[in-house]
């Protein structure tokens, strides 16, 4: 293979060329003034999405749920959360998407259910219930109590959960512990039990596929198979009672078997509304190695079409367990190497990749990778957009990204944050600070949350300059951003040089030059430069050169000789210099 091997052998597929747009139902559009986004709100905005030029709409969970984790805790797969609407509202959204030639995918959240799901209620009702083994139940361990004397009860393992604390909760009724990798209200389903798997296929998958959806975003896709029997993780965080234990529940021994079964029994029996294949994209955390990722996305394995890999989202985050919100400064070369790693991943394999820098679990990209200051936010939004639009892989945009939405202002107090993960990390940091175990922890975690909390992405969408940014006439469940008058879709629709207009233009350009942008091979230039990100994309004899200035200072621009300027994020590109946060593409045939 030549150093810039083109991916001519990468089979063209509709879902590789499509742009996906993620909707977070609670925060997209409220139709009835109760302060919460809803399905009629989404329905009213399908034409907006079609005009943006995206191809697939992904709706985050709108299923029935007690909303402990914003719908990622499902109490009934076959119903809609009532404040969002009804099943027939969903049917209307599905038809409207298809009428606008958009496909639609839903979140498949089947690592766990809510503790309010009928399955869990049954499972918990007695040790002999037929659904007992649909979840993981284990007896307590008893150890010497050095403080009180006698014996004390401890959980089956010392694992740390995602949202701080341990992974086991004691059930008084049946006197056993149940497992939850996330919140205690999200018990893990036991995929070892065949009846349980079959019920998942029927209820979470076939029910919605029969209604005509075109695929799934598969939540926490690599955690269904646990290492059994359960065992303690080694102590790597001596300050804590709870230890990172991913090797016990991530990429476990039967995971590939389970995903293949899901395909064979369910997905392979359906097509998208237009007869094309369904699409699946998995959420693949804690899998840093390309070989590990390839096992899920290799075309010949027929598991998942693609996955979200999280190297980029981890930039600036501390250790994923415990230290996640302990901000770690980073430099541009790290970002470039990560992009290179996942661009090159597809060049020598039959696996595909995804391109994204926002979703509902992260801070806004302008604040994390660009510059949210008033004079730079639009410029950096456009530069970041160009970065994504020129990369190989399937492009995913998150609601509000297309208008340059920002993180919540730093002045906002912690009481404006609502997310269970933010709350738990904050509470834990306060404890660690006050007890003197880690006296500056609180301060560090507050700073990390201000930059990276999941809450930032969940602020109401800014539709226009009216009260609450036009999201709701009532009191929104999360406060609307102070800047909705300056940053909103309506005013940007009218301005030819707005961030929104830029996104529309870039999506057309990406389509027009999809050979080089979507399928082209990646070549990183000047990797150690801490200010600019410059790369080439190659496809046959065609080359694109992408030059991005990640700073607020002008930077020298080199290497564009004999190439034609295709686009610049500034009205006037200057010879030999990249203006602050400018992005440019040159092309040569
Ligand atoms: C995924 C979701 C996240 C959720 C978690 C538990 O990571 O993206 O929002 O909290 O799964 O379901
Ligand atoms: Ca509503």
What does this protein look like?
- This protein has 589 residues and is α/β, with parallel strands linked by helices.
- The protein has helices spanning 14-17, 39-44, 46-52, 87-99, 118-125, 194-209, 255-265, 290-297, 332-344, 365-369, 377-389, 420-434, 441-452, 489-494, 499-512, 514-518; strands at 19-23, 56-59, 63-64, 76-80, 103-108, 137-138, 141-144, 151-154, 168-171, 176-179, 215-218, 279-284, 306-309, 354-355, 394-398, 521-525, 532-539, 542-549, 555-556, 564-568, 577-578, 583-588.
- A hairpin with a 6-residue loop joins strand 16 and strand 17 (532-539).
- The longest helix has 16 residues, at 194-209.
- The radius of gyration is 24 Å and the shape is globular.
- The mean pLDDT is 96.
- Bound molecules: alpha-D-glucopyranose and calcium ion.
- Residues 30-32, 34, 36, 38 line the site of calcium ion (CA).
- One of its GO terms (molecular function) is alpha-amylase activity.
- It comes from Lophiotrema nucula.
- One of its GO terms (biological process) is maltose catabolic process.
- Residues 22-458 form the Glycosyl hydrolase family 13 catalytic domain.
Could you give a short description of this structure?
By secondary structure, this protein is α/β, with parallel strands linked by helices.
Task: Outline the fold blueprint.
Layout: H1 14-17, E1 19-23, H2 39-44, H3 46-52, E2 56-59, E3 63-64, E4 76-80, H4 87-99, E5 103-108, H5 118-125, E6 137-138, E7 141-144, E8 151-154, E9 168-171, E10 176-179, H6 194-209, E11 215-218, H7 255-265, E12 279-284, H8 290-297, E13 306-309, H9 332-344, E14 354-355, H10 365-369, H11 377-389, E15 394-398, H12 420-434, H13 441-452, H14 489-494, H15 499-512, H16 514-518, E16 521-525, E17 532-539, E18 542-549, E19 555-556, E20 564-568, E21 577-578, E22 583-588
Parallel strand pairs: 1-2, 1-15, 2-5, 5-11, 11-12, 12-13, 14-15
Antiparallel strand pairs: 3-4, 6-10, 7-8, 9-10, 16-17, 17-18, 18-22, 19-21, 20-22
Helix pairs in contact: 11-15, 12-13
The structure holds alpha-D-glucopyranose and calcium ion.
The site of calcium ion has 6 residues, from loops.
């Amino acid at each position: 293979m030549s150093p810039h091997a083109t991916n001519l052998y990468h089979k063209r597929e509709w879902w590789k060329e499509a742009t996906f747009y993620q909707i977070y139902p609670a925060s997209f559009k409220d139709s009835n003034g109760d302060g919460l986004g809803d399905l009629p709100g989404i329905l009213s905005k399908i034409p907006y999405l079609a005009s943006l030029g995206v191809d697939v709409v992904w709706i985050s969970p709108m299923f029935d749920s007690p909303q402990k984790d914003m719908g990622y805790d499902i109490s009934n797969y076959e119903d809609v959360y009532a404040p969002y609407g009804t099943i027939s509202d969903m049917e209307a959204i599905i038809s409207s998407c298809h009428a606008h030639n958009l496909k639609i995918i839903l979140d498949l959240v089947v690592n766990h259910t809510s503790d309010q799901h009928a399955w869990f209620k049954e499972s918990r009702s007695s040790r002999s219930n037929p659904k007992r083994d649909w979840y993981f139940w284990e007896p307590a361990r008893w150890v010497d109590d050095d403080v009180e004397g006698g014996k004390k009860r401890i959980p089956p393992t010392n694992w740390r959960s995602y949202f701080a604390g341990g992974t086991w909760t004691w059930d008084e009724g049946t006197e056993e512990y149940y497992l939850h990798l996330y919140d205690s209200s999200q018990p893990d389903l036991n995929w070892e039990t065949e009846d349980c798997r079959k019920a998942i296929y029927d209820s979470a998958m076939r029910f919605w596929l029969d209604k005509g959806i075109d695929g799934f975003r598969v939540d926490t896709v690599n955690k269904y198979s646990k290492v059994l029997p359960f065992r303690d993780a080694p102590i790597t965080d001596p300050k804590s009672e709870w230890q990172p234990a991913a090797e016990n529940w991530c990429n476990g021994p039967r995971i590939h078997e389970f995903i293949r079964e899901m395909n064979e029994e369910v997905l392979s029996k359906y097509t998208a509304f237009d007869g094309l294949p369904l699409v699946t994209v998995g959420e693949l955390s804690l899998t840093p190695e390309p070989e590990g990722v390839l096992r899920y996305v290799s075309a010949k394995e027929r598991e998942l079409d693609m996955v979200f890999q999280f190297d980029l989202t981890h930039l600036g985050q501390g250790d994923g367990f415990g230290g996640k919100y302990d901000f770690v400064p980073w430099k541009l070369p790290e970002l470039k190497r990560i992009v290179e790693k996942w661009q090159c991943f597809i060049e020598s394999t039959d696996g595909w990749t995804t391109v994204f820098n926002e979703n509902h679990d992260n801070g806004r990209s302008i604040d994390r990778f660009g510059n949210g200051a008033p004079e730079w936010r639009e410029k950096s939004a456009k530069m970041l957009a160009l970065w994504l639009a020129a990369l190989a892989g399937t492009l995913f945009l998150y609601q509000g990204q297309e208008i340059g939405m920002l993180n919540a202002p730093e002045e906002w107090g912690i009481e404006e944050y609502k997310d269970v993960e933010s709350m738990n990390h904050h509470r834990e940091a306060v404890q660690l600070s006050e007890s003197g175990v880690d006296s500056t922890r609180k301060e560090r975690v507050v700073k990390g949350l201000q930059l990276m909390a999941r809450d930032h992405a969940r602020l109401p969408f800014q539709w226009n300059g009216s009260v609450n940014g036009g999201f709701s006439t009532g009191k929104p469940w999360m406060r609307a951003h102070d800047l909705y008058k300056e940053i909103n879709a309506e005013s940007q629709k009218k301005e030819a040089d707005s961030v929104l207009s830029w996104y529309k233009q870039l999506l057309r350009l990406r389509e027009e030059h999809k050979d080089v942008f979507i399928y082209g091979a990646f070549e990183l230039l000047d990797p150690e430069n801490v200010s600019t990100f410059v790369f080439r994309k190659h496809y046959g004899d065609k080359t694109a050169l992408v030059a991005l200035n990640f700073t607020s200072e002008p930077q020298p621009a080199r290497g564009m000789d004999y190439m034609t300027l295709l686009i610049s994020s500034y009205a006037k590109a200057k010879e030999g210099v990249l203006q602050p946060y400018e992005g440019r593409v040159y092309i040569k045939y």
